[in-house]
Specification:
The protein has 506 residues and is mostly helical. The chain is built from 20 helices and 2 strands. A two-stranded antiparallel sheet has the order 1-2. α2 packs across α3, α3 packs across α4 and α11 runs antiparallel to α12. The radius of gyration is 25 Å and the shape is globular.
Length: 506
């Protein structure tokens, strides 16, 4: 390749070298400054090539979405500046939906017509009508509304459509679980690395800057670790819900290699939850497993789970075991009714209620800080910390909006649980469905206590996971065939290993 470049350079009098240098300059400008007219023009050939490749190999875009979604909030990630983090996800999702429309004969759009799809459309319709909300008396601000609507509603729709259409058979489902599991393992490793080796310069800069008030606590003696997520709360709740899902996957699968992998991810994720110092996370994990006690339909599973997690709650709530560890002490404070942090939240919410009595539709989507002038009566609501995703939704959409959100969410989760409980015959597939449902319940509890529900990577991961539950009945027959095939391979390997062992004894 170098010889060809040198030959071409000699023949064209250096023009190739100049173009090559300009191209490198464009790449650097794209990396350092984001989009510009010069960068877009020069990088256009790569954009065109990428479009051709992704159109031909569409699943590449799907796997890219899963990986980018998980890494996009990593502090110090080498991403071009000036581009909103959400844009990477959104463009890939729209690209995948466009591909599906082009392949209308091959893609099974009928799978979109389910309870979850209807609930998300109802919520998206409500959020679309919110463009008319002028509670603050500032007129209609379409730009602010769209910014809020795409994060609060449209991304749920994109996740539902993409996962429903592209998780189309058992092999893709298993690949997805492995990709998700590997990313979770990396996140668990990275929190260990932060704790035992240290932070990268970018992570350290964020920790001692924007994150200092919430992540360096107890007089500077306790650090809340955040791994590759945006913050410790997002990481703690997300990794706790991941632990719930993978431990359930591990319990229910019959394939040994899958069981080992799932349990490895589940245990690593459960450990990684503690360095985050997120008190809500322990409650999320407990509630997730409690839901599985119901969905398992098995006393053999229900009794051990009840005993183990009952003992865990008892230890945290009524004993001082592990009190010498700062992280455990912080987790234990979640059971303290007199905790100062909880009291502060209650005071903030009492203040909010007085204002929200005059805003049944909320102050409007996208109404943040600078969007609402200081002399506006709702400026306090626009700037006060929401503390949790549910409170954030309540402030923007009012009592009407939060009621609708909770109702549609409850229906979606109940519909998924009903599929697991009554429609699936395969115990292992039922375990996958139960894992996703329990993780979603766990995540919703996290949304009650922290700003995590609609954040990256949790939104796509757990709403996409619930979407998978709704397509499991369509692929159950293929799943049973796939499982039998894998079990046959497993038994054959076991037989050959036994024969080799016997032969070695002769």
């Amino acid at each position: 390749m170098i010889k060809e470049f040198a030959s071409s350079t000699r023949e064209n009098g250096g023009r190739v070298a100049i173009l090559f240098l300009l191209f490198l300059l464009a790449l650097w400008q794209f990396y350092s400054s984001g989009f510009s007219a010069f960068a877009i023009i020069c990088v256009f050939p790569i954009i065109a090539l990428a479009a051709i490749v992704t159109f031909r190999y569409q699943m590449v875009s799907f796997w890219a979405l899963i990986v980018i979604n998980y890494l996009v909030m990593w502090h110090g990630a080498p991403l071009p500046s000036g581009i909103p983090s959400s844009l990477y996800n959104e463009m890939l999702e729209l690209l995948l939906i466009a591909f599906a429309i082009f392949n209308v004969k091959e893609v099974k759009f009928e799978r979109l017509g389910n309870v979850m799809g209807i609930c998300i459309m109802v919520w998206c319709s409500f959020c679309t009508l919110e463009i008319l909300n002028d509670t603050c008396g500032l007129g209609i601000n379409a730009g602010a509304w769209y910014q809020g609507a795409r994060m609060m509603a449209f991304q749920l729709f994109y996740a539902f459509v993409v996962f429903t259409l592209y998780i189309s058979n058992p092999k893709i489902l298993i690949k997805y679980l492995y990709v998700w599991g590997i990313l979770a393992l990396f996140a668990s490793f990275w929190v260990w690395k932060q704790k035992n080796i240290g932070f990268t310069p970018a992570e350290s800069s964020w920790l001692h800057g924007a994150g200092s008030t919430t992540h360096i606590i107890a007089g500077g003696t306790l650090i809340r670790y955040f791994s590759i997520f945006s913050d410790a709360a997002n990481f703690g709740v997300g990794i706790a819900s991941t632990a719930v899902a993978f431990i359930i996957f591990g319990i229910t699968t019959n394939i040994r290699k899958h069981k080992i992998f799932f349990f490895t991810v589940g245990i690593a994720a459960a450990w990684a939850m503690f360095p985050s110092g997120t008190r809500t996370a322990i409650a999320c994990m407990i509630v997730g497993f409690m839901v599985y006690i119901f969905l398992s339909k098995s006393f053999k599973i229900a009794i051990p789970f009840t005993l183990v997690f009952g003992l865990l709650v008892f230890i945290l709530a009524f004993t001082k075991i592990g009190q010498g560890n700062q992280q455990i002490r912080r987790m234990r404070s979640a059971f303290d009714k007199n905790d100062a942090s909880s009291a502060a939240r209650s005071i903030n919410q009492a203040t909010m209620r007085k204002y929200m009595a005059e805003a049944p539709w909320g102050i409007g989507l996208g109404m943040y800080g600078q969007q609402v002038p200081a002399n506006n009566k709702f400026n306090l609501i626009a700037t006060i910390p929401a503390d949790s995703e549910y409170v954030f939704i309540w402030l923007r959409t009012g009592q009407i909006g939060i009621t609708l959100f909770l109702l549609t969410t409850a229906i979606m989760i109940f519909g998924g649980c009903w599929i697991v409980f009554s429609k699936l015959k395969s115990p292992s597939l039922r375990g996958i469905g139960a894992g996703f449902c329990c993780a979603m319940v766990s995540q919703q509890l996290g949304g009650y206590g922290n700003m995590v529900l609609l954040q990256f990577p949790n939104c796509l991961t757990f709403y996409g996971g619930l979407a998978i539950v709704y397509i499991l009945p369509y692929i159950e027959k293929e799943w049973m065939e796939y499982e039998q095939e894998q079990l046959a391979i497993q038994e054959e390997k076991k037989r050959l290993k036994l024969e080799k062992k016997r032969a070695s004894r002769v």
